[in-house]
Write a structure and sequence with these properties.
Largest sheet: 9 strands, mixed
CATH architecture of the largest domain: Alpha-Beta Barrel
Shape: globular
Structural class: alpha+beta
């Protein structure tokens, strides 16, 4: 088959909140496909799978730190809430799915510094159509554990964001609190940023207020206060929640408020949060340097506090 115009991009070498340091150990990891551990190159699902054909499924990203899945109960609760909202029967209890995750990390002799992607779809279908009644029964459950450490180069320069023309959706159109496999609108926003030479997309809500980035939650620092959106139009981030709690307890005031792009431009600092990267600094938005255009002191402080928190 002739190659298309698609550009192949190695995520480990790009600047983003999801970029990571390359690790050769990942070439030989075993992954779990419906409970069976197989080499990563042999992990397959059917072309009739609802996740492949339609993006019909939910997922979670988790970190293994000191032999424990960080915030495991919160991640598993969010997974099951998402599955319930789309009437997807996972078929395993919360304890059973957690045991499957640990079975995968133990098979790979992983103890720390691993990132786990847990994906659950409606499973194989009789035919690839939208109707969930054509599902044949059992869901598809895939667990991928890889060694991933955030790319240190991102911290040396910070992320450059582009404000996308694509808005975060209302929950009655597409609920961002649901970790759905369907992410095309977010990918389109990211592509706009990449094509403009930026790292990630900043996205507004339907009213024009700052909402989130395409894969992370967004914060600004204004005169020592930490501002983030109200949460109505952004991801239900577990890292976001932890950062808000830690900042309130150890640093200062947090405001969950509507704020404009102009207020983001005039902020002293900015950063994003996510499972893999934790706290990732933002230094430029739409070609405008934020504050000094360097990683700020408050960003460094809350990042240090968060790293200490997750390692204890």
């Amino acid at each position: 088959m002739k190659a298309s115009a698609n550009k192949v991009m190695d995520g480990s070498t790009k600047y983003s909140a999801q970029s990571y340091a390359d690790d050769p150990r990942n070439e030989n990891v075993l992954i779990s496909v419906n409970g069976e551990l197989v080499p990563r190159d042999q992990g397959c699902v059917s072309v009739f799978d609802a996740g492949f054909a339609l993006g019909d499924g939910v997922w979670e990203g988790m970190r293994l730190i000191n032999d424990k899945i960080f915030a495991s109960s919160e991640h598993i609760d969010r997974l099951y809430a998402g599955a319930l909202s789309i009437q997807l029967n996972i078929g395993l209890s919360k304890d059973e799915i957690l045991r499957e995750i640990y079975k995968t990390t133990e098979a790979n002799d992983m103890h720390d510094g691993a990132h786990i992607r847990l994906m659950v779809t409606r499973g194989k279908k009789k035919t690839p159509n939208q109707d969930p009644r054509f599902a044949l029964g059992a869901p598809t459950i895939v667990i991928i554990a890889e060694y991933k450490a955030p790319n240190p180069a991102v911290w040396s320069k910070g992320l450059q964001l582009l404000t996308s023309t694509i808005r975060c959706s209302n929950p009655d159109v597409f609920d961002l609190h649901l970790n759905s496999h369907s992410r095309l609108n977010l990918i389109q926003a990211l592509l706009q940023a990449i094509n403009a030479g930026c790292d990630e997309a900043l996205m507004l809500d339907q009213r024009g207020f700052v909402a989130s980035c395409n894969s992370t939650n967004f914060f600004i620092v204004c005169k020592g206060e930490l501002w983030t959106s109200t949460g109505l139009y952004n991801f239900k981030g577990i890292t976001r929640k932890k950062i808000i709690e830690l900042f309130k307890n150890k640093v200062g005031v947090v405001r969950e408020v509507d704020f404009t792009l102009a207020e983001a431009y005039s902020a002293d600092e900015a950063f994003v949060t996510g499972t893999l990267g934790g706290v990732t600094p933002v230094t430029v938005i739409d070609g405008r340097p934020i504050g000094t255009g360097q990683v700020g002191d408050v960003t460094r402080k809350i990042s240090d506090i968060y790293r200490e928190f997750i390692s204890t």
